Amino acid sequence: MDVFRRLDELLNTKLEARFNRVNEIFDNVGSSTVSKSDNKQKEEFEEIFGKYLNDQPPMNTNIKVEEEIRDAVREASRKYGVDEALILAIIKQESGFNPRAVSPVGAQGLMQLMPETAKELGVTDPFNIRQNIMGGTKYIRQMLDMFNGDLKLALAAYNAGPGNVQKYGGIPPFSETQNYVSKVLSYYINFKNNNA
Length: 196
Known about the structure:
Blueprint: H1 2-28, H2 39-49, H3 63-80, H4 84-95, H5 115-120, H6 129-146, H7 151-160, H8 162-168, H9 175-192
Helix pairs in contact: 3-6, 4-9, 6-7, 7-8, 7-9
């Protein structure tokens, strides 16, 4: 028992030291006393937070990518009869507009297509902006058709699969899916009002 207690103490000490260092870094952000060229602090920041930060720049810093996304969204909207604002809302929730995004379960690209689904939708390169948006829009169109235009159920099916929506007779009782539907609807309203 002493071994486990000692191990627990060591882990807690390390966690506390790490937490204190995180607080110091945040306290120093924007401080005039900290040199922007402080490599040690930068390395520590990258070590602690690097895995949480996207490798890709935000959408608005890469004009070419932003234009390519907007063009593909317009094309997909026309082809599949899905509102541009809805496509943008799904992309925002799924990948944060990162064309190279990969989820822990293997979903890929802007609209986070699973490899099998992408293949069924005719997507050969899920990281290709146009292909991914065309495939994802085709899929949400299929879900809208399957659930008689019910947007909430279609979004739940996009996230959790149509089988789960059918099984539960509505939005599945998964917190991830319930949050997903709520967030996408919120983004959808914002995009419709040109606020996002």
